[in-house]
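Handout, page 2. Input:
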Amino acid sequence: MSSQDIPEENLPAEQDHAHGAVGIADEENPFADPGLPPHEHRIQDIDERAARRSERMVALLFTVSMLATIGFIVAYLVIPNDKSIFVFPIGHLSAMNFALGLTLGVALFCIGAGAVHWARTLMSDVEVADERHAIEAPADVRAKVHADFRQGAKESALGRRKLIRNTMFGAMALVPLSAVMLLGGLGPKPGTMLRHTLWAKGKRLINMNTNQPLRPEDVAVGSLTFAKPDGLEETDEEFQNEIAKAALMIVRLQPGNIKDKRELDWSHEGIVAFSKICTHVGCPISLYEQQTHHVLCPCHQSTFDLSDGARVIFGPAGHALPQLRIGVDSEGYLQALGDFEEPVGPAFWERG
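Output:
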């Protein structure tokens, strides 16, 4: 329905708005101001029932935002942080992270959508053109700004549209509770869990690529192999947390090239096992230089000498990579002879 279909007596009175100096383009003034087109009234301006429908829609969006915020709080309190779900086509995700992201996204989107719908359907849409003025604000301009603000507040019908006002205030009051709930994620204290990994005496070294236990003959001189503890599977809910501590890199050196006595004692036939986690900020190390026996962290170029106790020879890392003592079991498979002697990863945890 357009304004042409409505009798003139039902149309709201036009306000006197300055549209600037209107001119006609010619050779001397090719960029003359054509002025603004005639204003078209919206259906909400001429039909109170349509305005009520828009009001209810805005209130519905604000109400959905409130429900989503409550859902955020419930999800944070109820869903275990180690529970995972399968979401097609993304794959396995943390159930809590998925629920928190979904509910918070809906809460914020509905507040924005409600505000936009309110502005587009119920607030005044009359275009106003003002002449450019100096940067400073003289008294008459300030008076005009205040008058425009009061006029805008009146046209928004915030006092008259109580349903919109109350639901908007409710939605905006509840959303900050999401941030308050996230403060709970700062605890509990990690205790000693960061000082220990899944490695223990008798745990076999499992090739990360083949998922098969490793024998000494599987590790060639100069090769780099990544391993994980036996029993740790990618489908496990705690896989990411555990592999972040237990990831292992295995290199076979000529025993005569090993300079550090403890490294030689903890190796097996020249096979040495070191933590894959850089001691700077915890990035995974993956670059190996065969001739020098150096490994490089790709994040900040910390370099470690695997022939000399994995000591730091370059970069910001604070200390050497922890070594895992290894041997072979009765079936000839490589196994751990205990856990790491010191915490893996950044030096911060040694001081924690």
